Amino acid sequence: MEFVISSIYVLLFLILISKWKIFSINDIPRKDIAAAFLIKILAAFVLIWIYSDYYKERHTADIFKYFDDSLIISSSFLNNPKDFFSMIVGFENNYEYLHQNYFINMNHWDSSYSSTILNESRLVIRLNAIVGLISFKIYFIHALFFSFISLIGFVFLVKTVKKISPKENVRHVFWVLILFPSILVFSSGVLKEPLIILGLGGFSYLLITLFKNKKQIIKKIIFLILCLLLIYKIKFYVFCCLFSGLLIFISIKKINKNPHLIFLVNLIAIGFVFMLLHLSNNTYDPISIISKKQEDFIRLAEFYNAGSIMKITEIKNDFFSFLKAIPSGFMNSLLRPFPWEITSKIHLISIFENFLMLGLIGYVLSKLKKVKKNLYQNMYGYIYSSLIFIVFLYCIVGMTTPVFGALIRYKIPGLIVLLIILVPLFKKTYKSKT
After folding, report:
1. Which residues pair with 309 in a beta bridge?
2. What pLDDT band is residue 110 in, cutting at 50, 70 and 90?
3. pLDDT in tens, 164-188
4. Which of 54, 74, 76 is CA-nearest to residue 66?
């Protein structure tokens, strides 16, 4: 019965892909997008196998924890719809009652509210609870919904590339994003990554169309804010990195003179605000938050006896220890795990990806003169804002994440943006060579 219901849902999603205007992209036939969705379905099965094989206790497996908790909420819909809507909407005036009857039976509802940095699970649990009303409690259907959500995000990302470079054939960018192993696997399960990809895709596309087309400005701004709020609620540190890139992008676009100087001035301004928050000794001190986040993650990894713990530079609540951790943090995200640090088969995929990315970066840098010739003045806003997002994200993830599996997953938003920059540049310089 599960197979029949799941097959019906797969068919419905394929019909949506063939009919929905969102999936209309120049250079990419809808059959390509449908094929990408089917590939993501296979990846969802691979992800289930990975987590079932490596995480023997279900409550510690990330892909199941939101689903399992959501069943407690969705099961209340028929018996007590008032409780269901209270938990979904968040109007918890009767919190004690809800806690005693529902939240106490969940493993992850309250676990993410001990830190100033929002990295919460409630929104993901609520979304799964809504899907649970029509999923017949079948996990695979939830995975289908999340795979579809990330597919929409990828479509918006390639549409963004098309808006920036109208002559660019974006088909190769689309397929690189779809088939890149870690992105493919972790964007195809009930995780936060599909929602982050949707937020990134929607935000980037709306931002570019806002600058290029002045029609329906209010509508675009509303949806752009909603995309930012989604990222803000799911992963606050991704939001901070994105917001830093946004400031640089808007500054370069609005001033439209000497983008290199504007980038430098913005970088100094961001550093000044960072230091001001640190010295003001308030609850939003970024160094204190990052230090606490690192400490919590190390303690959690040790508690669950994670099989792939790596040593990272300790960050104390002072500027110099933070400064010392930045280079190693960035290198952790860029290079690790090293070949001699392999403890599971999935690390082999990550090592292959790291070598591939280093090769792409090295090749593009070696053709820097040709790259500059292909860059118009208006392109620097996109490049500089993207680089800031990538570097900031890689530093934060590498400084705070002591587990290889989590490191591979958490850097995915930066990896996606890096590929979006490198793949078209590689294609242009390689073509000019031949």
Report:
1. 403
2. confident
3. 888 888 999 999 999 999 999 999 9
4. 74
Residue for token pair 């070696």: 366
* Nearest by Cα to 195 from 10, 66, 287: 66
Six-digit token string for 66: 């939101």
Per DSSP, the residues of 170-223 read: THHHHHHHHHSHHHHHHTSSSSSHHHHHHHHHHHHHHHHHHHH--TTHHHHHHH
371-391 pLDDT, tens digit each:
776 666 667 889 999 999 999
H-only helix segments in 75-192: 76-79, 81-89, 95-101, 122-131, 139-164, 171-179, 181-186
Residue 113 pLDDT: 43
Q: By the 8 A CB rule, do 335 and 401 touch?
A: no
**pLDDT over 70, % of the chain:** 92
Q: Cα–Cα distance between 25 and 131 in angstroms, integer?
A: 28
Q: How far is CA 108 from the centre of its chain?
A: 20
**Distances in whole angstroms, Cα of residue 164 to Cα of each of 156, 170, 186, 305, 394:** 12, 11, 27, 46, 25
Quick one: which of 352, 281, 343, 283 has its CA closest to 318?
281
**Which sequence spans correspond to the domains of the chain?**
2-195, 254-433
The owner of tokens 């939101």 is 66
**Rounded mean pLDDT, 310-323:** 88
Could you tell me the pTM of the whole model? 0.93
Contact (CB, 8 A) for 45 and 10:
no
25 beta partners = 28
- What's the mean per-residue pLDDT of the chain? 88
DSSP-based three-state secondary structure for 393: helix
User: Tokens 């935000």 label which residue?
Assistant: 203
